[in-house]
Amino acid sequence: MSTLTIEESPIDALLREQQQLQTPVARFSVAEQPASPSSCSMPRQAKYYRDLIPLSRPGEDEQYAFEVDLDKCTGCKACVSACHNLNGLEENETWRDVGTIHGGESSSPYLQTVTTACHHCEDPACLNGCPVLAYEKDPVTGVVHHLDDQCIGCQYCVLKCPYDVPKYSSNLGIVRKCDMCHNRLAEGEAPACVQACPTEAIRITTVPKTSGQKEAPRDPIIPGAWESSYTRPTTRYVSEKKIPADARPADAHSLRPQHAHGPLIGLLVLTQLSVGALAAALWAPTETARWVALVLSGLTCVAGLASSVLHLGRPLKAWRVFLGLRKSWLSREAVVFGFYAKLLAASGVALLWGGWPWFWPLASLALLTGLVGVFTSVMIYVDTRRQYWNFRDTMLRFYATTAGGLLVAVLAGGFFWALPLLGILVVGKALAEKRFTEAHRQNPESPHYRTARIVAETDAPLYRHRVRTPALLLAAGLLLWPVAPWLAAVAAAAALVGGEVLERYWFFRAVDAPKMPGGVQP
Amino acid sequence: MKKDPLFPKRPDKASLLREWTGPLTNDLVQQPGAFGLGQLPRRLDVAATTTSICGFCGTGCQLEVHLNKEGEAINLSASTEYPVNLGMACPKGWESLTPLEASDRGTTPLLRDARGEQRPASWDEALGEMARRFKKTMQEHGPESVAWLGTGQIAVEEFAFLGALAKFGMGFVHGDGNTRQCMATAVAAYKESFGFDSPPFTYQDFEESDCLIFVGSNLCIAHPIMWQRVMRNQRNPDVIVVDPRRTETAMAATEHLAIEPKSDLTLFYAVAREVIHQGWVDRDFVAQHTNDFAEFAAFVEPYTLEKAAGASGLSASSIQELARKIGTRERVSFWWTMGVNQSYEGTRLAQALINLALLTGNIGKPGTGANSITGQCNAMGSRLFSNTTNLLGGHQFTEAADRRKVAGVLGIPEERIPQQNSLAYDQILEAVGQGKIKALWIIATNPLHSWIEQNRFKERLEKLDCLVVQDMYANTLTAQSADIYLPAAGWGEKDGTFINSERRIGTIRKVRKAPGQALADFQIFRALAHHWGVGEMFREWTCPEEAFQILKKLSVGQPCDFSGIRDYAHLEESGGIQWPWPAEAESEDGKVPAQRRLFGDGKFFTADQRARFCFEKPRPQPESPCGEYPYILLTGRGTSSQWHTGTRTEKSDVLRKLYPRGIYVEINAEDAQKLGLQSGDKTLVQSRRGHLEASAFVCQTVPAGKLFISMHYREVNRLTREDVDPYSREPNFKICAVSLKPLR
């Protein structure tokens, strides 16, 4: 009798071999024990970067800064990858970027790659905007730190930073950013990008603070970057070559539609409608109309605030949102609308139990708070200094929504004379925006050129409906008015809400978000 | 003793209102790195490190791979002590591990079924089918009815195994590699001029040269770690870039000579004439170490400065100045890449640079040389051991003595070695088109994207009875057309050696498990040998390191003799070893010197040990612009974060962020204005062979009348035209005539 043997086929043997790795104790590993203490004191690479980092801490009126020698930066982009690896970032997360500026004449073309990370600004917009104080400027080094565990993932810093530095991770629910490898510098090691630059183009220097100066420097740190007076960036780009006057980023032409932020669209439109409806409740000549308007106001308010929570990456920590009140319009908005909601609820209770005499003072206070709340909403965006979000236009947009809320609530109370007024508001707004878009999309010099092109070209199918659909709905409303007034009211309300949602969609999506020069983008 | 930090570290606390620490903060917290690596994230705790040569370009940087306790790679950095890269790597190197993790890796062999669908199969089925179909084809149509197309990306041992298995085991006659697309011209030029394919330089020459002349090379983005060496040069050198475009390298150079495309041969003949006329020739060197100088001097006589100025668009004085620098600077080095190699007269052009080095005695000394910079990580290994153009180890198929030697070393009957040379890549494809070659095996390359004149290539491929593709990914353009797909392990999943541009042999390491059933190419060849029934012939090829010992023996007595290398460990200890390092080589301290160049003794590898001046009258470009196709299309590398057809680099989020998302065409502002074009506008670019749509990028870096499209986009080779250099048979990728019109 032969014994049963299980023989491995040649392929199985090869597959088994393929899955075998040499463990660290096997012959191939160069080092398996930590090196001796003496050789461990400094990393091996230190001999190459020793001269690229400061050996002392900054003085009173100084801070650390990146200095990039453009004449040495030739576009290898190793800094981006090295930062990614040595800092253990997420798969798609990068804290550095390399762009290109170009220009000049045919006879003397100019081309320059530009490596960029956080500029550790003296007056950091991210820090100033953060509603929960998740940013800190290091008192000694001037490095702008982000407190990852403090962050609630509101992404306002992403909107505030004119250099597109903070990066939001939907996976982590927070923003992260470059900290100049603060801990490495503390130990006398170079930041990852400095270590990894083959041509020693990046170094850390100590720079004097400009805050003592009367006027902040205005010139951008590199052509195509935001005017420096906003945040006082500290990175210095140096070059012995003359940068031609027409030098511009390689991606200057590219349309970069931004995140549309659905929950924020909901927050803005709904809270603004709510404030308008509350005004209608105060005005309403009948008890029914008052209740209808108040319920409408309450429902939109609750839905709006609920929507805002969906926007946050870490909503459970959002209760700290008042911490930034001193500087952050986002904190102010959250606090003011928090009060508004409570006053609105109190007004409802007052109307139910105490009637008009109790109601009107509370509701007036709520209305005033709501109107202030809308103003804080406006300022959140104005404070980013983005052109599309300028004060006048944003005020008009947001308070027009409030007015729309008022008219819808009036309609809902059965006062159909509001219908044509609503029609004028809706169609007027749509036409005004269309005019704006058409005017600016033809003019490459306009600050709204790219905004208008995103609206009209990138989103062409939607754009075709911008005026047509609300107008059709309103026309239907006007026709239906004599026969089915309530149906007409619903159509008009839908035209208003649809129009406002679309306007707010482009408000976020089509804004020309400032950034550092990027690479060619088809 | 632990020294104090330079300034206070970050607070490490959390209160009700502020959290300076917590799980999210800890995700990035660093700890002092062991192994001299510096601070690293605590999450990526390093249990050990090992080293591996990077698997992208021919620079040959060494990466320090961080391993966990299981010996699996978790991260990597660049090796500080390796003489090639001094602790640096380009973004591709830093991202080397990412392409291995791609979700679309091939994990099982695929067979095309009767309905034309690729279906998973076992290795035994797939290899059995491959053996059956190839054998049947060879029985019916003879050994010349099959061929393979290889690569520059697999290990030396794998090249040798593939070449030996295919030709000696399976009986193939024809095989070639994608190195035909990049280095063939340098090979042909060196062979004829020096007697052997022998790039003479060492990277230290970048640092020790007084005048570096880069021709058709965008070193800054194609070989950034070599540019690092240029920047380390302390001799205040002239850095002269000859290129039609104002590239990153042209910007960084001290001088840019923006010549008309393909006027280079005339230009360098005129420079040679000027050197001769001004008496800058190194008479002693020329007399003692070269042949045919008189003929060369007579030949260049008609190439006056004016003639070259007319052809190149440069001023006569700037050409004169170039000649003066070449003639008078103490150490002059000439460097070229694809702008020279990928040309219809590339061999003569490379030799025009070699001639200048010979004329001025700029060879064999520090900071000198006529130096071809290699494209792929192991193109140099392929040049010696792919068994395609050369018999293993730089031998000749046509030489009986060479066949006898190789047969002896391998222990195989001499008659198994073909006595004829392989067809070259383009000739193989022609034979495919003519129906002469009916079965093709493609290994680790993506020619459906990379080969010139794509539409013609596609038509030819359709005539095959059987196409086998062996690759890391089953979804490359080429693999999608395969009848049989074999899933290969990639760099990082296997051991072996690479040879870099400066002839340095270094090791690669298995630091990851291959996904699914993917096998290292070496293992696939072992399995295929078994299925073909020639397993016994390759019984000694048990693992790459054993194969390396065989290769050492094959190299004995050749210019590339590296029989003095003990084993992989020897390579590790020495920081890689440049060939030659014969068994009899000696050094003072027993260590192999880190930087060695060839021809220090002025002895070349020709029969009479003299280098030859090789030259020929320039020919007009095969396709000149005309009324219908008024632009010259230039092609080349786009960014440092892209590699060839992108099958690996497109798998990395980080690398993808660093290159343009889609195809774009660079056009001069003057031309753009005439067409009313702005950056970002869509355009239609057409040649006589095909068309593509690309977004315009209006700039000044491309001269008027020229366009540039990066080769990394799969559409570009629809436009190019299949002309080849007659000596190297390398395709003329760099120029063709096209039209461009705005798409509205």
Quick take:
Chain A is mainly alpha-helical and 522 residues long. Helices cover 47% and strands 9% of the residues of chain A. Chain A has two domains: 48-249, Alpha-Beta Plaits (2-Layer Sandwich); 262-509, Formate dehydrogenase/DMSO reductase fold, CATH 1.20.1630.
Please tell me about this protein's structure.
The complex is a heterodimer of chains A (522) and B (744). Chain A is elongated, with a radius of gyration of 29 Å. Chain A has helices spanning 10-18, 37-40, 46-49, 78-86, 125-129, 156-160, 182-186, 192-196, 262-283, 287-311, 329-353, 356-382, 391-412, 418-441, 449-458, 460-463, 465-480, 485-509; strands at residues 62-69, 97-104, 109-116, 135-137, 144-146, 167-169, 174-176, 202-208, 236-238, 248-249. With 522 residues, chain A is mainly alpha-helical. In chain A, a hairpin with a 4-residue loop joins β6 and β7 (174-176). A 3-stranded mixed beta sheet of chain A has the order 8-1-9, with no helix packed on it. With 744 residues, chain B is α/β, with parallel strands linked by helices. Chain B has 4 domains: 23-96, N-terminal domain of TfIIb, CATH 2.20.25; 110-181 and 380-542, Rossmann fold, CATH 3.40.50.740; 184-372, Dimethylsulfoxide Reductase, domain 2 (3-Layer(aba) Sandwich); 631-742, Barwin-like endoglucanases, CATH 2.40.40.20. Helix content of chain B is 30%, strand content 18%. Chain B is built from 26 helices and 28 strands. In chain B, strands 7-6-18-17-16-8-9 form a 7-stranded mixed beta sheet, with helices on both faces. In chain B, strands 23-27-24-26-25-28 form a 6-stranded mixed barrel. In chain B, α4 links the parallel β8 and β9 (174-177). In chain B, α4 (156-169) packs parallel to α22 (521-532) and α13 crosses α14 (316-328). The termini of chain B are far apart. The interface between A and B is large, with 105 and 123 residues.
Topology:
The complex is a heterodimer of chains A (522) and B (744).
Chain A: H1 10-18, H2 37-40, H3 46-49, E1 62-69, H4 78-86, E2 97-104, E3 109-116, H5 125-129, E4 135-137, E5 144-146, H6 156-160, E6 167-169, E7 174-176, H7 182-186, H8 192-196, E8 202-208, E9 236-238, E10 248-249, H9 262-283, H10 287-311, H11 329-353, H12 356-382, H13 391-412, H14 418-441, H15 449-458, H16 460-463, H17 465-480, H18 485-509
Chain B: H1 23-26, E1 30-31, E2 40-41, E3 48-53, E4 62-67, E5 73-78, H2 91-94, E6 110-112, E7 118-120, H3 123-141, E8 146-150, H4 156-169, E9 174-177, H5 184-194, H6 204-208, E10 211-215, H7 219-222, H8 224-231, E11 238-242, H9 248-252, E12 255-257, H10 264-277, H11 283-289, E13 290-291, H12 293-300, H13 305-312, H14 316-328, E14 332-336, H15 338-341, H16 346-359, E15 369-372, H17 379-385, H18 400-410, H19 425-433, E16 439-443, H20 447-450, H21 454-461, E17 466-471, E18 484-487, E19 493-499, E20 504-510, H22 521-532, H23 544-555, H24 568-574, E21 577-578, E22 611-612, E23 631-636, H25 653-657, E24 664-668, H26 669-675, E25 682-686, E26 691-699, E27 706-710, E28 735-742
Parallel strand pairs in B: 8-9, 8-16, 10-11, 10-14, 11-12, 13-22, 14-15, 16-17, 17-18, 23-27, 24-26
Antiparallel strand pairs in B: 1-2, 3-4, 4-5, 6-7, 6-18, 19-20, 20-21, 23-28, 24-27, 25-26, 25-28
